[in-house]
Write a structure and sequence with these properties.
The N and C termini lie far apart (94 Å). This protein folds into 2 domains: 90 residues, Cytochrome C biogenesis protein (Helicase, Ruva Protein, domain 3, Orthogonal Bundle); 55 residues, no CATH class. The relative contact order is 0.07. The chain has 154 residues and is mainly alpha-helical. Helix content is 64%, strand content 0%.
Length: 154
């Protein structure tokens, strides 16, 4: 049982091993900022894993780049802008809600609502067509129908 618990703890701690001791900054405040920024940036190799959690070589390079920019005195926003300018918005784990991204964010809910509207309209039309009473034939139409049916049976 202890072995299973130890293995589980090791698996849960794996992301902590991503940042190597030689990457860490000596200033705890800068290191903390670097870790927070690293959690916002996507590993370009590992898909949907932050560079803070990834063991990929490119993630390590990005972590070092973030730390280098912080040491040079960049603000958090400047670091993010630098990385986005270099690698594109795909590098952000939480994309911005501007420009083309806004279309992507809005398109899903709009299409869902349009689909629901079309479905409701179809159901209403279908229900109304089934509920509409059949019109009764006028006396002239009834007589003509009787004459046609009588001719066909003779």
């Amino acid at each position: 049982m202890r072995l299973i618990l130890a293995a589980l703890m090791l698996v849960l701690a794996l992301p902590a091993f991503a940042v190597q001791p030689d990457e860490m900054l000596s200033d705890p405040a800068l290191e903390s900022r670097a870790r927070e920024l690293s959690k916002e940036l996507r590993c370009l190799v590992c898909r949907n894993e932050s560079i803070d959690e990834s063991n990929a070589g490119l993630a390590r390079d990005l972590r070092l780049l973030v730390r280098e920019r912080l040491v040079e005195g960049d603000s958090d926003a400047e670091v993010i802008d630098f990385v986005v300018d270099r690698y594109g918005e795909y590098v952000l784990l939480k994309p911005t809600l501007t420009g083309a991204n806004l279309i992507l964010w809005v398109a899903g809910p709009v299409l869902l609502l349009a689909g629901i509207g079309i479905g409701i309209g179809y159901q209403r039309r279908n229900r109304l067509s089934r509920e509409a009473p059949a019109e009764r034939l006028s006396e002239d139409e009834a007589a003509r129908l009787k004459a046609i049916l009588d001719d066909g049976s003779a």
